[in-house]
Design goal:
Largest sheet: 5 strands, parallel
CATH class of the largest domain: Alpha Beta
Radius of gyration: 23 Å
Strand order of the largest sheet: 2-3-4-1-5
Low-confidence stretches: none
Helix content: 40-55%
Number of helices: 17
CATH architecture of the largest domain: 3-Layer(aba) Sandwich
Oligomer: single chain
Number of strands: 5
């Protein structure tokens, strides 16, 4: 992957090229940035620049056969670790290497993809992805071998915040006593979820969300989208190129999330003073409880965003409103008056608590039914 394929982040490209060119390559680096900003593509491009001994800012000019291997993400000195779950084909102790074919397909289809997209490819249901100690053991084995081409060995750990404690402790020992010519690149959306002892041993690089203009230009040049449509999508994407691509397809998760959200708040409105309508909320809870835990968590994050957008609209901050629900007869401006300073903090707290309990394997039906009943009360609060 060439640096020229990565959207924006020019200051980080320049820094990485200069550090590699001068031979000052930190053995452990942590790339932090929101989904869709390009942390993973940048890590791969940086690895290619180093391993193939490329010489220009376009990441070409070095070892031609080495560059060719990177087109298929199959260079023997490039290693990946990422969250996995047990599946029908890998029933116990799943490791990253067990899903390398799916991983390469994921990178080929959309290197800007997020964790939810990866889980969807794996067919995650009620399981939650994790980087386990078996992965850390594989890292030890891989790095114990000599470099295939006599240079660096690069280990990219994607979503490093998903490492469990055992894996984190084993990785920490590797970072404390690194092998010669070994480069670790850790990637995460959430810096605070990585244990402090690992963070303190890494050089941290922070990536910015992409600007609307960068996403607009990319959609026009790469997807052949008309400028006005591209600008509208870029505004809704909020710096996330992966979300922009999903909005173009019109079949991303937001389409389903919108319907579930609207069904939920409509049932909550009907339930006030109407005991029979409680059954609608229970039915809704059963539907959402039947989804995988990762989908439930992402949906609740989506609900948080919808309430925040309604609040902004209620207080006339229209320039900050980017969501445009497509559900028939549901308009955000009509819903906005019911979200105000009197109830927004409580709504956010209940959503946050529900996410917390779902993440810790609580009974989703009970959690969501409880949340729905509380929402009925809060949404009518003056």
């Amino acid at each position: 992957m060439q640096f020229s394929q990565i959207l924006a982040q020019e200051h980080i490209k320049s820094h990485l090229i200069k550090s590699a060119g001068s031979g000052r390559i930190p053995h452990a680096q942590l790339f932090i940035g929101p989904e869709g900003c390009g942390t993973l593509p940048m890590a791969i491009a940086y690895a290619q620049y180093i391993l193939c001994q490329n010489t220009t800012n376009e990441n070409v000019g070095g070892n031609e056969s080495c560059n060719l291997k990177f087109e298929h993400f199959s260079h023997p000195d490039l290693h990946f670790v990422y969250p996995t779950v047990s599946t029908d084909s890998v029933k116990s102790k799943p490791k990253s290497i067990d899903f390398i074919s799916e991983w390469r397909q994921f990178l080929n289809e959309n290197p800007y993809g997020g964790l939810f997209d990866w889980y969807r490819m794996l067919g995650v249901q009620n399981k939650q992805g994790e980087i386990r100690v078996d992965d850390a053991q594989e890292i030890l084995k891989s790095l114990a071998l000599k470099s295939y081409e006599g240079g660096y060995k690069v280990m990219i750990i994607w979503m490093a915040d998903k490492m469990n404690i055992a894996a984190s402790n084993k990785l920490l020992k590797l970072l404390e006593e690194p092998s010669d010519k070994t480069l670790f690149i850790l990637i995460s959306d959430n810096e605070e979820d990585i244990i402090q002892t690992i963070r303190s041993r890494c050089q941290v690089l922070h990536f910015n969300a992409l600007s609307e203009q960068v996403i607009t230009d990319a959609l026009v040049s790469r997807e052949n989208i008309e400028v006005r449509t591209a600008a509208k999508v870029a505004h809704q994407a909020q710096g996330n190129y992966n979300k922009a691509l999903q909005l173009l397809q019109d079949d991303g998760e937001d389409v389903y999330f919108e319907k579930w959200f609207v069904d939920w708040v409509r049932a909550a409105f009907r339930a006030k003073g109407n005991a029979a309508a409680i059954q609608d909320l229970i039915g809704w809870s059963e539907i959402i409880a039947g989804l995988g835990r990762e989908t439930q968590k992402k949906f609740l994050h989506f609900c948080t965003d919808m309430f925040r957008q309604a609040l902004l609209l209620n207080y006339q901050a229209t320039s900050l409103v980017y969501m445009e629900p497509k559900i028939e007869k549901f308009k955000l401006e009509n819903f906005a008056p019911f979200v105000n300073g009197g109830n927004i903090n409580d709504i956010f707290k209940e959503l946050s608590d529900a996410m917390y309990h779902i993440e810790r394997n609580g009974n989703a039906k009970i959690i969501l039914t409880d949340l729905s009943i509380k929402l009925t009360r809060l949404i009518h609060k003056k």
